[in-house]
Design goal:
Rossmann fold, six-stranded parallel sheet, about 300 residues, about 15% strand, alpha/beta
């Protein structure tokens, strides 16, 4: 009887940005288990396409014969669990990638950089998508998975009024592609990019962009994976936990006032940004000159 292959089955779950971040964990998996083939099971398999470290990638829920093919009669290793509940993650003491590695007992060398691989054909195709009369600025001012059809979450989004002021000024030098969901507010002096065929084409527009103004969402993770320095505005989430040193990470200038945090369980604020927990005295939370200077520098 021939010897069966053994596998490491990595099951990262969550939103698109979190799955992009999870690609950094695969380096540590490969280092610890060099004789195992790596299988990734995830809601966003397109992020793992062409990744040379993995054997197969599957979309959550599309796994016929999975147990028989990869687990039964083998010595496969299952890496499944939620790094958000790591104690040091809860207290904001370390990066998400390190928490993931600790969860599975993996080595961590301090490198949190994600990895996304595009073919040369894809790169050429995305060049046409960003070809405009002026240099392209990719601008994401809101994003993520919101509940109840919300179009704004104060915990991560740039306030609409401040986004519009920035767009008015930056559009004088750049053609702005504004990333958002189909129900997002329209920002004048930008081209809305919300009819997105797939997530690779969403990320792909970063490749040939000249500048990037982003928030704590999928695009800042993707920009780090592509070695594209960006300006990233943070509100209630922490760049030390979810961000990257390659970016210019900008925090609010307004102080957080004390709130009841009545809806908070393990984290201080929900990603969906309950309105009754808004901790600022106004919506002018960023120094717009600082943001502008960061983008055009």
């Amino acid at each position: 009887m021939s010897k069966k292959d053994n596998y490491v089955i990595f099951n990262p779950e969550g939103g698109l940005g979190k799955i992009i971040a999870s690609t950094a964990v695969v380096r540590s998996i490969h280092e610890k288990y060099p004789k195992h083939k790596i299988i990734v099971l995830t809601p966003w398999p397109e992020i793992y396409l062409n990744n040379p470290r993995i054997h197969r990638v599957y979309k959550t829920g599309a796994t016929p014969y999975f147990y028989k093919d990869y687990i039964a009669g083998r010595e496969s290793i299952i890496l499944k669990g939620e790094p958000y509940y790591n104690t040091d993650h809860l207290y904001g003491k370390q990066h998400l990638v390190k928490s993931w590695c600790e969860l599975y007992g993996l080595p961590f060398d301090g490198n949190t950089k994600p990895e996304i691989y595009f073919t040369v054909n894809e790169i050429d195709m995305y060049k046409d998508m960003t070809k405009r009369d002026k240099p392209t600025l990719v601008m994401q001012t809101n994003g993520g998975m919101y509940e109840n059809g919300k179009i704004y979450s104060w915990t991560r989004d740039i306030p609409y009024e401040q986004s519009q002021i920035l767009a008015n000024e930056l559009s004088k030098q750049y053609h702005i592609l504004h990333i958002g969901s189909k129900n997002s507010k329209t920002i004048n002096n930008t081209e809305s990019y919300n009819n997105i065929p797939n997530k690779r084409s969403l990320i792909g527009i970063l490749i040939h962009s000249s500048k990037r103004l982003l928030i704590d969402s999928c695009m800042q993770h993707a920009a780090a994976a592509l070695d594209l320095e960006s300006t990233v505005c943070w509100v209630a989430t922490d760049p030390n936990v979810f961000g990257y040193e390659i970016h210019d990470n900008i925090k609010p200038v307004l102080p957080f006032r004390e709130t009841s945090n009545i809806d908070s369980l393990f984290f201080d604020y929900d990603f969906n940004g309950p309105e009754h927990e808004y901790p600022f005295e106004s919506a002018d939370i960023f120094n717009l000159q600082e943001v502008y200077n960061s983008v055009v520098k």
